[in-house]
Amino acid sequence: MNQSAELSLEQQFSLRSFETQVEKMSREQAQDFLIKLYEQMMLRETMYKHFLKHQWGLEPGPQY
Question: Full-prediction pTM beyond 0.85?
């Protein structure tokens, strides 16, 4: 992995903390969590697309 794509020390700590929490989850809890996480990832992607279209002037502005 190149240096610009590596996790910061803070992110590595956060990942390790998350890993510890996941290890304590039941299978059902982990499945529910993954579904919610995936939904959030899709929403974030939709927001990024919207923001980029707006920033790049690719979407129509409000019609008055």
Answer: no
